[in-house]
Every structure is written in C-alpha cells, then in structure tokens.
Fold each of these.
Amino acid sequence: MYRFRSRIQTRHRTSIALVVQRPASGVRRPVAALVVTAIYVITSASAFATDSLFATRCFETPIANPFEARIGSMVQVDDERLRLDIGASVDIAEIVNDTSTGRITLGADFMTWTRLRSENNFKFPVETVDYWFGVNGQWSLADGLWSVRGRIAHISSHLVDGLANDSATLVPAPFVYSREFIEILAARTLWSVIRPYAGATFIWATQPDAPDPVVPQVGVDARIPLGGKWHVYAGYDLKMIGINGTYAAANAAQAGIFYDLWQGRGLMLSGYGYSGRSMHGMFYTGYDEYVAIGIQVIW
C-alpha cells in the first residue's frame, strides 16, 4: 500500500502538497486498475461550466507533471540541490476552429530539466540535464470541457561536469540514454476549476532497453480564482513506470499562488513534492524524494 502524508512546501506555488511515498518493493502490473479507475472518474461526472479557467490553449499544461515545458527554478529544501527547468511549448498553427467540431492546433515542444548541486559561495555545479524536443497536436470541444493532447518526442539525458571527482572522472559513469515515444492525454473540465486527466506514454525506441514500453498516467489540476489577478494553482500527477516488468510509482504534487500580470501571463510562487522513480534519465533506475520551493514564469 502507498502511504499518503501532507507536507508544507513552497516552491512553484506556496501551499500544502500531498506526497505519496513509494512502497519498499516495486508494484507489479497495476496498469489495468489504474487506467479503469481514471476513466471512470473522468467520464462519470455530470456537473460542468463553460467559463473554464482551462481555456487558454486546447489542452492546458498539467501543473504537476514533471515532463512539461516550464521556465523556473526550485530549491530542494532537504538535499541541497536545485532543479532548473527551461523550456517552451508553443502553438504554431490552428488547423480547425469550429463551433461543432471544436478546435485543433499544432505546436512544438523544446525543454530541458537540469539538476544542480548547491555549494558555498553561490556555486551550483550541474550534475545532469535532460533534453526534450518534439511536436504536439491538441483538440478541444468548442465549450472546452473535453480536450486531448498527443505528443511525439525524443528525450535524451546526460551527465555534466558537476558530477566529476578530483581526477575529472564522472561518477557514476555516463551511458547512452534516449527514447522516442508517443504520449496521449485526455482531460475533462469539471465545475470550471477542476480538471482530471488520464493517458499513457508509448515508447517505441529506447536505450537502454530495460524500461517497459507503456507508462500509464493519471492526474488532476485545479485553478481557483481568489479575486482580482490572484489565483490558486494546484495539481497532482501519478505515473506507473516499469523496468523489466516491475512497476513503481512516480508521484508529483504542486500547489501555489499565481499572479496574473498580463493576459494570463505572470509569476507563480509554489511548493513542489516528488517521490518515486527519478525523472532524470541518467538515474532512471533510482528513486528521488524531495520537497522544494521555487518561482515559475507562466506564459
């Protein structure tokens, strides 16, 4: 069983975040139950509104999902590390915009996630960095209640000189890590402020070949207006990642305060929690668990 506990955290948003601790042993084959439960939750709700806060793009970025385009940094408060996220996902073409069939857009994704170590004299050696680039297609109904996003992408991971010892040897030793995959997520907006989503990543090429080819994913976002330009943003994301047939969770939770400076663009101060298989490819067989605080640019 997973144990849930609340932790106060103040990273990309200031708030209380829910962190799920992984069990001592891997979880084997929970895929069917996870997906069925998510589909039931999404499709069984009956109350909706049309003035959704998730209406800027066809498919709004899941707030807590680690593998999204971000501009911001967070300080991991319990292990003297930082995470620096630099990236953008941009809509470059609108293919369809019709009141009956909905809206379809095409876009491009370019992002990096960097892990740094904090040292004295304001030094931050870079330990590892992951690169993502690809394209996306998004569809939403005219009222914005249902939306779908598909992404085709490549990701690679690299060790950097911040992991080198006194003899300039990287420890651990670097290896080739790359993946090509398709990710599909579907979401439904409820009561104009809550949005559960579910989907999966399908990997067709990978080095090394230990990761299992299907990564199920579920999550939920909330965007709650506080009045004026202030909003609460919060989210939880869960992936089940398999390595050689053994699945284990990767949990991410984020919550904080967003201030809208101009037309949906602004700054967010938030807390972030992560627990589970590492998001960094060079450490894909390991586990990370941390709470962080930081600031993020929302565009």
Note: The two ends are 38 Å apart (CA to CA).
Amino acid sequence: MNKKLVIRINRVIGQAQGVKNMLESNRDCIEILQQIIAVRAGLSSLGRELVRTESESCAMEKNTERLRRVIDLVVKM
C-alpha cells in the first residue's frame, strides 16, 4: 500500500511544481487552473485510497474507535 501512496503523492508534488513553474513563466490562467484541478484531483484520490485502506484495516481489527476517527475526518474532507 505505501508504495502506491508514495507514487501518488510524488505525482501531486510534480503537478504542484508545475503550477509554480507556470506562474513564474506567466502561462495562461486557464492552463494554470487546469493544472490546479489536476493537483486537487490527485490529492482527492490519495485521500480516498487512505480512507479505503484504513477503514478496511479498522474493520478487520474491529477497532471501532479508530474507524470513528477516520469517518470524522472523511466528513471534514
């Protein structure tokens, strides 16, 4: 699981760096906004994967308190 998540966050970091480079080179705002949308989608995907794996783990371990904490955080997303 960790390897997949590291790959995802590295992709998001690269996209965020791309936004910075686009701003520094005065790229068109529509292109920049499209890249920002990609960054947000990447973070959302990472969050969903973390929620999925953590909730499955809590269910298997019957750790209801931790599962409640995960659910509370999901509601805040």
Note: Helices lie at 2-24, 29-61, 64-76.
Amino acid sequence: MDCLGVTSHLSLPLPHDCTMGRIFEKRKHKIFARMDKMAKAFTKVGREIAIAVKQGGPDPDTNSRLRQAIANAKGVNMPKDNVERAIKKATSDQTDFSTVMYEGYALGGIALMVECATDNTNRTVANIRSHFSRWGGSLGSSGSVEYLFEHKGEFIVKQEKTDEETFTLEVIDAGAEDVELQEGQFYITTSFEDFGRMQKKLEEMGAEVVSAKTEYNPMNTTRLDMESSKKVMRLIEAIEEDDDVQAVHHNMEVTEEVMASLD
C-alpha cells in the first residue's frame, strides 16, 4: 500500500506531493534536531550573557566578559534582538546564575569535566549525577580528574583580508601558543592565563571574533572499543542536553567510526 492508501503491485511513479511527503518524513527528525540544537545553543549563550551582565554590567564597552559573550552569540547566529533582550533581562532579573564545575568518570575510566551555569546547584548536581549513573559512570569530587587536562583559551577569528603571516606574528606576540588557518578562519590557542590578553589584542586589531572560550584539553586520550565508546558518547550527549550545562570536556579518543555509528 502506498502513501495514498492504494494497494498496487505496479512500479508506477508516485505523485509529486506524495514523494515530497516521504522525503520530508525522512529529513524531519534531522531538521527538528538541528532546530533543537540551535535553541540549546541560544540558551547557553543567554546564560553567558546573564553572568557577564551580573558581574560587570550591561555595557559591552566596559565589560570584556560581555563582549566575549556577544561574540559567541554571533558565532551561533543568535539574532541581535535576542542578544539585546538577554542583556535587558539580566539587568532587571533577580535570578543569579553561578558557574560550577563537576568532575567524574564514565565507562572505561574516561574522565569528564562538566561546566555548568545554574541558579539551583542542588537541581544541577542531582541531574548530573543521574546522567552518570544511567550510563555506567560516577560523579567524583572536585579535583578528581582536573589534573588530566590543560586549561586553554581558544579563539576563532575571521580572516577577511588579513595577511596570514602578519596576523600570526601579532597574535604570537600576544601569547598565542598555536595558530592555524582553516577555510578562512584563524584558530588560536593560548594558555588560560593569556586569555584576557589575547582578547584585548584581537579587539585592538579590529579582528572579527567568531568564538572566544576556555577549554579543558586532555593531556592524553584513551581509546575504547566501539560499544563502550558509543555508551560514553551517549552519556556526553545526555549531559550536553541539560539546560544547566555549558560544556563537557573528556579524554576519550573519538574516531570517525564512532561518530558515524551515532548518526
């Protein structure tokens, strides 16, 4: 029986509307997943903005953390009106978000660091602990896995008409540890201590910053078998979907085969 409710043994071409309907059904879950991912990205950036405003006020000219949050909002294509509403809301809203880091181990001894921005730490820690337990991991104490990571600053900057060699030399002088040019964008890595210095330098250069963030990069990675890797990735995905979570860092080696198996 075809999608019009007609039973046939002939290989006749389906009406255009019917064919398009099937195509949409196949793609619908991907479209909705992409929309959901965008909404979550907006939520995370909104909290970055709220924290920045609470700490340094609503004027990006005098609040470097807010300038960073606005740059990150542009990086995820958050509309300007949304950014302005988030700043206005944070100025008047009494909700106070705090940043919290949770650490733990996933299946196979994989270390995870979970960055959160929350207005209720009791709710957040309960949710994070539940995710770990469900997927065979365990929440640890502060400092239990942090020593396995390096705290770094990472910037993505549009190249535009900037000369690669000149730009690279300038940011190295400002503390860049690594600079790569890929598909019209510079990827800059700094030490955590040089993050603010680099941010100031890029502003002075008039560079268009697509993203500015701090990362916990593993000093070594661990490779698991396919089944264990998939379970760890499911844990990471579950944690990332939590509204209180800003970022998840881990030391598992993620192969192309593992990523392909999750599609």
Note: The domain at 98-141+223-262 is CATH 3.30.70.980 (Alpha-Beta Plaits).
